[in-house]
Amino acid sequence: MTRFDSRSLPVSTTSDLAAERYRHGIDLLLSAWPGAGEVLDEAIAADPDFALAHAARARLHAIRTEAAKAKARIATAEEIVARRGTERERSHVAVLSLAIHGQSARALERALAHADAWPRDVLILSLPLGAFGLLAFSGMADHDQARVDLCERHARHFDNDDWWFLTYRGWSHAENGNVAHGRALTQRGYDLRRNNANAAHALSHALYEGGAHDEAERLIADWLPGYDRSGVLHGHIAWHSALGALERGDPQGALAIYADHIQPSVTAGMPVNVVSDTASFLWRLKAYGHTVPAGLWEDAAAYSGGYFQKAGFAFADVHMALLAAAAGDKAAVEERVKALMALIETGALPAGPVVPAICRAALAFADEDYAACARILEPVAAEVARIGGSGAQREMIEDMLLLSLMRSGEAVKAGQLLDRRLHRRPSSRDTHWRGLLAA
User: Fold this and answer.
1) Is residue 372 exposed (0-12), middle (13-18) or buried (19+ Cβ within 10 Å)?
2) pLDDT exceeding 90 applies to what percent of the chain?
3) Which residues contact 184 (CB under 8 A, 6 or more apart)?
């Protein structure tokens, strides 16, 4: 008797319980909901030779930056699938193995080919998507468009009520500038499955990109209490609410959210989120003219010391440089820049020269050398998307350029940048800054 996954693809297990637990575990994984690991462990206990359950468990370990556990688990999946897996399952495990072993370019190539053959294999289709997916971290300047193209290419294979596909299709469109369409799709996915952190997150992004900051704050205030603090996106979704508080000029409210949900001592988020959320929030707070309370920079830097010390992960490199620059550790920034330049020379940094440029600009900004910061950032401003992440995360770098132009007397250029931003979406802060320039 054939068993199936949650999207009706056959799976190689002899246990009804294992198949049921696998379906449930995958849905929890895809919604970033607590309990996925335990449920997948139950699938493995019901059938220790269930290769895809081992592979999904490996993916969870990788998400949590538990590299050794991820590699051990995917090795088990590879051994099992070699002797009792179908062609799809062998390809599925191979793609995850490449991703887990850091072979991102090959993993992306294989994931896209796999999706062409088996588009409803959602765990593999999920790998290129999202702010931290293989496309975002590929170094491509047009990864936002590439995600839309991928979703639209396979949309016909999904039901109109597939909450997972609606979430990622909507997020992709909103990030690529089609905000109204993206928000509508994401809202439908959210309505179909509210116990889905990825949907709440995606909807927050769509609201942010549409300038609906108050709506985003209300959404998060209503939804976040029902999401356990052990959820990997708990702190990051709160970070979106903190940005909303900063947007409406409430630094104390933003700091309260930071203290309760975001700072390293209280969050269970993925390290890449914790490092980027803390660095970018504190940077924004200071750049917008507010005081960063004593100890917050030091706490963020202490946490980051356990991660991303080796240069080459562009998104993390930028945020590690921000932390070092804020701490006045010029040597650390220069050392990272030197390492990045060496990677560029060997062709080993897909995102390219924009990464060390942002690091140098962060140091100039921290030194209040705004003219130098603007000189460094202007030539690479169109390439910032190459570092990955979301538009909301990368906007901090555009803010750095904007504030540097304003503070170095480049009123015309600053005004042009502000006009482009305000044309894209309303912003009370940008409107305030535009008024300052006009005055």
Assistant:
1) middle
2) 99
3) 170
Query: 194: buried, middle or exposed (CB in 10 Å: 19+, 13-18, 0-12)?
Result: middle
Residue 438 has pLDDT above 90, yes or no: no
User: Which H or E run includes 4?
Assistant: strand 3-4
Give the pLDDT confidence of 341-400 residue by residue, as tens digits: 999 999 999 999 999 999 999 999 999 999 999 999 999 999 999 999 999 999 999 999
Tens digit of each residue's pLDDT (9 = 90 or more) over 401-423: 999 999 999 999 999 999 999 99
CB 89 within 8 A of CB 47: no
Tokens 């588009």, residue?
119
Give SS3 for 159. Answer: coil
Residues 6 or more apart whose CB falls under 8 angstroms from that of 243 comprise 208, 213, 254, 281, 284, 392
Q: What is the CA radius of gyration of the chain?
A: 22
- Do 237 and 197 form a contact (C-beta atoms < 8 A)? yes
> Each residue of 147-194: pLDDT tens digit?
999 999 999 999 999 999 999 999 999 999 999 999 999 999 999 999
Nearest CA-CA partner of 400 in 321, 307, 295: 321
Find, among 271, 295, 273, 222, the residue nearest to 65 by Cα: 271
Contact by Cβ (8 Å): 193, 33: no
Q: At what angle do helices 271-287 and 391-407 cross, to 10 degrees?
A: 30
Contacts (Cβ under 8 Å, ≥6 apart) of 166? 185, 186, 188, 189, 192
Report the alpha-carbon distance of residue 171 to residue 98 in Å, rounded.
Answer: 25
